[in-house]
Amino acid sequence: MVIINHNTERTASVSEQLRALGFGTGRPVVIAGPCSVESEGQILAAAAAVKAAGATALRGGAFKPRTSPRSFQGLGADGLRLLAQAGAATGLPVVTEVMDTAQIDLVAAHADVLQIGSRNMQNFALLKEVGRAGKPVMLKRGLAATIAEWLSAAEYITASGNFQVILCERGIRTFETYTRNTLDLSSAILARQLSGLPVIVDPSHAAGRGDLIAPLSRAALAAGLDGLMIEVHPDPAQALSDNEQQLTPTAFASMMADLGLAPETEEQQMARLDAAIRALQAQRDRLRGQA
Ligand code: PEP
Ligand code: MN
Q1: What DSSP state is assigned to residue 112?
Q2: Angle between helices 213-222 and 185-195 (to 10 degrees)
Q3: Of 32, 55, 61, 66, which sits most exposed with the smallest number of CB within 10 A?
């Protein structure tokens, strides 16, 4: 069966584009932002809030895969433009979904990472083409996909020569109804081991409810996974999609602080650098002692 395992030192093999997202830095990647881009004010407010709380990238859907055709379908090209504007305003790279081969060039012109959503995990025509844009691709696990199916889907992307694939576990469909889906951490861990690719966890779509986001995020990081994708909206109750699972900026900031992921103050940065300098000096002294 599998595939892709580069078997190299993960941090050493991280490309510049993945490093810009926060991969390979030793700290978890946190992609945060609203389910959908809804307006200029909404995405700018969300971007500023997630940046201030320590997020490393901004998300926001412009082309939305909605179960019902009567639901909000996203702002399309206008949404991409607003998302790119919010990314530029905050210095955050942006992640957004591409649903169709015909949208790839347009989305790639605005986004730093192209997201393949759950419902398209086995859209093989899309998988074959999306890697050619030369941007990292975030491949969400299908609603009922096995690990082997998920990794085979990733292999469709890497077959184009683009190995910048990020896997995202977003919950699978089970018999449970208290949650929207069931977060499958064991598969996320196995997918990481088997593929050598970075794996992040999206507790927002897995749980479908705000109260589980923080504990599930903690569990994902404790399991050694590479990061999180969290939906954050300036006013979740008014959101045009997924209003039950999006965190307020305040709840997101408090979760980030609890996880130790809030941005460091200048003082903390200096203390960390001082400690690193002291450790290097001690290492140098030991070498000199041996010489
Ligand atoms: C999303 O992340 O915007 C999304 C639609 O999620 P999923 O494809 O996992 O349902
Ligand atoms: Mn959503």
Answers
A1: S
A2: 30
A3: 66
**Exposure string over 118-145, b if 16+ CB within 10 A, otherwise e:** bebbbbeebbebbbebebbbbbbbbeeb
pLDDT band at 70 (very low <50, low <70, confident <90, very high): very high
State pLDDT tens for residues 209-252. Answer: 999 999 999 999 999 999 999 999 999 999 999 999 999 999 99
Give the global pTM: 0.91
Classify 63 as helix, strand or coil. coil
For residue 165, the cross-strand partners are 137
Q: How far is the CA of 1 from the centre of ligand 1 (A)?
A: 27
Query: 118 CA distance to ligand 1 centroid (A)?
Result: 6
Of 140, 143, 173, the residue with max ligand 1 atoms within 8 A of its CB, to mutate for a pocket test, comes to 140
Ligand 1 pocket residues where CB is under 6 Å: 35, 61, 65, 97, 117-119, 140, 170, 205
**By 3-state DSSP, what share of the chain in percent is helix, strand and coil, each rounded to 5?**
45, 15, 40
What is the C-alpha to C-alpha distance for residues 266 and 276, in angstroms, rounded to an integer? 15
- Dihedral over alpha carbons 121, 242, 250, 60 (to 10 degrees): 50
182: phi then psi, degrees, rounded to nearest 5: -120, 120
